[in-house]
Amino acid sequence: MQIDEQIFEFTDELGPEKIIHLYEPRTRMKAIVVVDNTAAGPAIGGIRMAPDVTVNEVRRLARAMTYKNIMAGLPHGGGKSGIIADPKTVNKEQIIRTFARAIKNLLEYIPGPDMGTDESSMAYVYDETSRAVGLPRELGGIPLDEIGVTGYGVAECADVAKDYINLDLNGARLVIEGFGNVGKPAARFLAGKGVILVGASDSRGTIYNSKGLDVEELIRVKESTGSVTNYKDGEVLKITDLLMINTDILIPAARPDVISDANSDVVDAKLIIEGANIPITESAERALHDRGILVVPDFVANAGGVITASVEYHAGTEASALDKTKNTIRRNTKEILDKVYSDKTYPRETAVGIARQRVLRAMKYREWM
Ligand code: NAD
Q1: Has residue 233 been placed in a domain?
Q2: Could you read off the pLDDT of 321-338 as tens digits, one per residue?
Q3: What's the pTM value of the predicted model, to 2 decimals?
Q4: Is the CB of 254 under 6 A from ligand 1?
Q5: Ligand 1 contact, 305 CB (< 6 A)
């Protein structure tokens, strides 16, 4: 049998174990599932629905889930899936149910929500397969966006990281790119620690006030009008101007690769906590670090969502999800930053090194090595 070696181009000692293309001719549902590594247990990872989602994107995100889940000490490996469709125009219930039926026997993959899917989507997946996380409250779910657990974890991460750059959170300035389910609670929890939000953006623009934005009022404006740019007591700037705002803390919490080699030099911050997944390219992260800007990587800082998903899957409570998020993220941030400053290494390399070692150890317990 001849095998096209190209399809194994990205495999390494961890995975991916499976890359599956799915097509259902009646509904024309097209999807990709990547199960990256299941040494620690069945893979948890979201279903992304977007018209332009690619195998490579799903593969990168699946690996990120392997690292995130093992760093968080969850009994789960990493995976991800992508349904190639526009969530605004398709019959979502039909396409999600079709996808769920296609993965019913893929028992090593437990789907969760991601861009383009939500709690209702997970309810349909659960109905078809009896396997999903991020469920509605009525089905025993812990509503992670309602409680803002990822933003909560991001704020706890900042609280640990500040000590490594001698930053006092009381009075520190904050800028948030993407005032959504991660950005809003991050702003709220950090405001509780005395941080002053001076800039925030969404897909329509940036709002800025050097004296500070009222976080609760900004959340109200965003939720009632759809955009932060309708906030009255601030200056409206372009989306791209956000990165240039002089600040102590910057939280990218929207899209991938928003900071790259093309624009990393304009960033004017001391500490960056990655709320979004892969918001900064790896070479830009290194360039920022070389300029003395501390960047805490995504899979360390934004694990609150998957920690809560795992607590939900194992029938835990909302209070224990918050507790586990706080303790895990604080412990991991400290472990990584201690090593960064003692060994003079980059944060992502350090974090990936620790995560890889943990996955390899889990593989040894399974007699895979
Ligand atoms: P969301 O849709 O609730 O919010 C995203 C926000 O970003 C929206 O306000 C949107 O208007 C804004 N936005 C879109 N394009 C923008 C642009 N070009 N510039 C500035 N803002 C823009 O999404 P979310 O759940 O907050 O997720 C944000 C990121 O965090 C994603 O990368 C997601 O994968 C990641 N993440 C989310 C969670 C979670 O618990 N929700 C957990 C881990 C990682």
Answers
A1: yes
A2: 999 999 999 999 999 999
A3: 0.94
A4: yes
A5: yes
